[in-house]
Design brief:
The complex is a heterodimer of chains A (119) and B (251).
Chain A lengths: L3 E5 L3 H13 L3 E5 L2 H10 L4 E5 L7 H11 L5 E5 L4 H9 L4 E4 L4 H12 L1
Parallel strand pairs in A: 1-2, 1-3, 3-4, 4-5
Chain B lengths: L1 H9 L2 E5 L3 H14 L2 E5 L2 H11 L4 E5 L7 H11 L6 E5 L4 H8 L4 E4 L4 H17 L11 H7 L3 H27 L3 H17 L3 H11 L7 H22 L7
Parallel strand pairs in B: 1-2, 1-3, 3-4, 4-5
The chains are: A alpha/beta (119), B alpha/beta (251).
């Protein structure tokens, strides 16, 4: 059974890369380009894993994390961050995210971390 | 470009996995006549050991039913696990078309056996050329190493990604100029933060550095000149891409 992964990200090149790698690893990938689109998906579907950027248009990453933790607390979350966001990443961990990956991600590292969280 | 292709073809390192001694001999003869450096491996495991010890080759030609690991599995392992963009040709006897399609999901081409010299040379030259097309000469403005590693050398993905780079940065530079006119410095920092990974993915250090400054340390008075520098760097990247990929559409 393919695992359903929601990717919330607004950089088109990062989206394309994540989609390519995650699909090649055998997952079903759904993309949301901003926080509002992500909320729509989250209200309609339960995902096996969520990868999210933190700086998003309309609804911020932290707001999304709060929503996910409140409604589907067992869904693992990986934060997509950049190297200069240490404080923001710490805040996200305090909110209960499971892991973070720095953009641009290492392909093998992404596969390993995703596999680990999907069990 | 023609001379570059010819010289790269001649110096190509080709790995062969072929259990039939007669076919192996034929291939050795072809390699000698084409000036390829031929590495013969007993099986896929030996190929992986060779690649681990020698970093990379230009092409692997491997039997479909190689044991203990099939040609498909080795092709997949090389691309997804070792992250190498090395093209793979699977050699096989007569097969149905449906099966051919399956093979091409893993490898760049199929080579029919018994090897026929002219057909083998043509197919291998074509595959090497394609591989060189997506590996342009090293330049100061971009590198495809990361995209190659990520996609296992998937040419369509690489070409679409660089088109996307050009279109996105073009549009975001226009946005940067607009928000600069409005003196919306917070938005400038957000846009720079958003596009920084794009420069990192094509390994352009200048673009990455400027985005980093705009996103973090730059004073408001410095932003105009930094955006202008970023624009110039983007023009240089785009000119180089247009030169290397004349068939693509760069906006």
């Amino acid at each position: 059974m393919m695992k359903k992964i929601l990717v919330i990200e607004d950089n088109p090149m990062v989206i394309k890369s994540l989609e390519f790698k995650l699909k090649r690893d055998g997952n079903n990938v759904i993309i949301a380009n901003d926080g509002r689109e992500a909320m729509k998906h989250l209200k309609e579907t339960v995902f096996d894993l969520i990868l999210t950027d933190l700086m998003l248009p309309f609804v911020t990453g932290n707001e999304l994390i709060s929503y996910i933790k409140k409604n589907t607390p067992d869904t693992p979350i990986i934060v997509l961050s950049t190297s200069t966001q240490e404080n923001i990443i710490m805040d996200a961990f305090n909110m209960g995210v499971d892991d973070f990956i720095t953009k641009p991600f290492s392909p093998n590292e992404l596969s390993l971390r995703v596999k680990r969280l999907l069990g | 470009m023609k001379n570059l292709l010819d010289s790269q073809r001649e110096n190509a390192t080709v790995i062969l996995v072929e259990s039939n001694p007669l076919e192996r001999e034929k291939f050795s003869h072809i390699s000698l006549s084409e000036g390829w450096r031929l590495i013969i491996c007993e099986d896929g495991l030996e190929v992986i050991q060779w690649l681990n010890a020698n970093s990379n080759a230009d092409l692997l030609v491997i039997e479909e039913d190689s044991t203990p690991i099939s040609g498909y599995q080795i092709a997949d392992y090389i691309k997804s696990e070792l992250g190498l963009a090395m093209p793979v040709i699977i050699s096989t006897g007569e097969i149905p078309i449906v099966q051919e399609r399956r093979m091409l999901a893993y490898a760049e081409a199929i080579l029919k056996k018994p090897f026929v010299e002219s057909a083998a040379i043509l197919q291998i030259r074509k595959t090497l050329e394609k591989s060189i097309e997506v590996s342009p000469q090293q330049n100061d403005y971009y590198s495809l190493n990361y995209l190659n590693e990520l996609s296992g050398g998937d040419q369509q993905f690489i070409q679409e990604s660089i088109e996307l780079f050009s279109a996105t940065i073009n549009s975001e530079l226009r946005n940067l100029k607009e928000v600069l006119n409005r003196k919306d410095y917070l938005r400038i920092r957000e846009i720079a933060h958003g596009i920084k990974p794009s420069f990192e993915m094509i390994e352009n250090e200048t673009g990455r550095g400027i985005c980093h400054l705009l996103n973090s340390d730059a004073k408001e008075t410095e932003m105009s000149s930094l955006i202008e520098e970023l624009n110039l760097e983007f023009i240089n990247i785009k000119n180089q891409l247009t030169k290397d990929f004349p068939e693509l559409n760069f906006r």
